[in-house]
Batch of 2 targets.
Target 1
Amino acid sequence: MLDWRQVRRYVQEMANYTGDRLRVHPPTLRYALSLLHRFSEDLERLQRMGQEALRAGWRGAIPWGEPLAARFPLPPEQPQAMVIAADGSQIYPDRHGTIPYFVLNIGLIEMRPGSGAPPETWHHLVFWYREEELFTEDGEMRALNDLEAERDIQELEQLTAAMAQRAGDPFGPPVGLADGMLLPWALARGEPFAAVPAERYRELFHRAVGALEAAKETGGAIAGYVDRPTGHAVLRLLALGLLDEITREKVADYPFGQLRDRALFAELLEPGERSALFAHTWPINDHLGHKGHRLLFFYLNVGTKGRPHLARVEIPEWVARDQARLDRLHRAIWDQCQILAEAPYPYLLTRAHELARIRSEERKQLEQMIQEALLQRGFRSSISAKAKQKEWLGR
Amino acid sequence: MAITTRARSDRSAEPAFIGRVIEASARTFLVGCRLTAEDIPAFGSFVQTARGETTIIGVIYDLVLQGDDLTRILALQDVPPPEIQQDMIENRNIPVRIGVLTLGYMRDRLTYYGIPHQPPALLERVHTCLPAQIQRFTEEPDFIRPLVEAREASDDVLAAVVRTAAEARPGPHQRDFLVQVGRELVRLLADEPTRLGQLLRRIRMAAGTP
């Protein structure tokens, strides 16, 4: 139980701190916006500086070739764009439970807008309980970030497999939407920080490339949709543009206080418009680039006049290079967000999440089912003493 | 190990699981569940639950489809796209609250009409009844009395219950059953000729008999 006297003090402090952080300083925003326009056509210089700064430890966004302050209007309505979305949730192995197991539930939904037909839904269930599935070679249970990476990569694989099934469908090429980043977070962080063995990292990379290749073959488009992005990669690029020389100290400097990319592009973009394309500076992106799948991103205002709502959309480079695919994706995301216009977010991602979610009563039911199955086979399994204590105390 | 399954309703011949008891009194109980609109049982359907060795039989007299945040946001649109409306009907598990009127119970192969000794336990599972169970439970017309006396259930529910019970029987026996029910209603509602007349009309309409 919480000591509410202490909690109350921290909550007050937190509210003060958060208030200061969230208050965007108007002069800073105007300054950043002026730099976005000033450096808008300075692409070659910024690309050159970006490459040099990377060696000095800088991380930010590299312009992909479109003017930084460019605004791309909402493409006209696309006839027949099938949309597929995927999301996943999991039950992590509990070493205090009856027996350890890992459940991954991926919810998928496919909609044919304008057809009048109900969307199709399905589940992909992964159930790991074998020694070799749950434990590493040195006998330790697999780390949570390893299992998270498995969830992320399976989401991507299932999404692209669903797209592949619809390749050549008379309704039109599919648009695949993933919740959050397109790439597993462990991969994006880079091998030294992924906290998974090198061999596992390489396996994840090959699986990601395989999935993206499958998506490309469908003739459709795929994207990771990041709601309320907190990044400041573009602002870091603007800060870089101000430097007269690249040093480790200077590239670490961030002159925009609490300002984030989202606030900058909320000021620039009208509803429906997307920003210029940028490339991530993750080390893995070069490797992906060699395979033809460099990841780019743009910001998209899915809000309304006076109430901007910014999302970051991550796409492979082959989507960006094909205007038809890019337009279909841009329009599909907008249309999806309009379905839930009060809280703009792609409808199908909301539904995929709902399908994937494992509710607490379902967890209990599964645990009961496992205990019964073990009992029928003559095994009286029990939870650990620690878990029992927690149960008695109502967790 | 991994398995992929497409969403489809279970149409097996087993009693279908509806939900669990969330509130119970001597005469009625509430069932909480999440169902697609297609799978929501109809008014007048027979359901069963348990209290120890006793199987409690009741009929659905009320259904509340509880809108959630997603439903409310979608409702703000002038015209939600037809695909979304279909998604709500065919795919989404909507929170549903079902009101059940207890008609009787079965224990040791015997059928008793009226309220059981105890209401069903909270969180007890509730299933639909199979036609054979309905036929057995409604063999005697005594199941009618709780329905006639219940404040909760309207005469529309009574008519729906009679229709469901008739449909659980093979064709030639349906008419006999309806005549038997009609006689019981005449006996029970001798002092209420207006209500009796309306009820018999409703049953005729519900059962599709002239």
Note: DSSP finds seven helices and eight strands in chain B.
Target 2
Amino acid sequence: MGLTARDQQLVAAIQGGLPLVSRPFAEIGARIGLSENETIERIQALLADGTIKRLGVVVRHHELGYRANAMTVWNIPDDQVDELGRRIGGVNFVTLCYRRPRHLPDWPYNLFSMIHGQNRAAVLHNIEHLIERCGLKAIQHEVLFSRQRFKQCGAHYIDAPPHQPVVARMHSPSEGQA
Amino acid sequence: MDTRDATIINQLQGGFPITERPYAEVAKTLEITEKELIERLENLLAEGLLSRFGPMYHAERLGGGLTLAALHVPDEGFDRVAEQVNHFPEVAHNYQREHHLNMWFVLATETAERIDEVLTEIEQKTGCRVYNVPKIEEFFVGLRFEL
């Protein structure tokens, strides 16, 4: 999808993480035959066009003591979903906020937000706070706590070795991210 | 993990400079040395507090398919269905959740078209109706996890 072979190689070279050395982009460039400057320019371009959403640390919520998470879903009138989606996404304990399709009549919810906390009570407290702060009292919602995690693959986006067509296998750190 | 580690994590959730000496730049704002920052990141990764230090990609831009889907699985068949669903290599995460729709999984496929094929196969294999809820729009979140 518009990615050049060189960019595919670059995406594959950094997907497992940046090298923890003084000049990481020189090292990545050396692996795929780019100069340090070219590597920096291409990564900046991939960030600018959104191919890379962000670069930084990916935390393990559970290991950091955030042992509860709830997918909280909202049934928001279509003409308000952009406004309320932005508001909910702007609250600091909300880690993900997506609009998704309803499946009426079984599933009326069109906005999904992921809320973490040290425990269930903390998550529920955060949701109450969210309702208050974003003016959601009239909005139908449900809180889906996770009971069991069966499967979580490591982050791995591209299986193909260099020169092969790009293969996206995005394993996001949290299910709401899909 | 000490308070300095927490500061590093908070800072680096927000982004990372794309420059020749990025660690040195971040270290300077944290008033530590580049060497200390790198060592602390190595430790946080080794201890598993960080899963990764690197990019989050926009999967669709890379040409793949990505979706979230749910099933209602009757209690007595839950383990069997979980096994059937997890058997698909395209299933990246699978969580049991407290709801009538009690199984939620993320599907990541090599092509966008493959999503529907896999969901159909999952329906046929499990006998459960699949509720597919692909992302329509993403609202910006800071993705900061304040420690």
Note: Chain B touches chain A through 79 residues (CB under 8 Å).
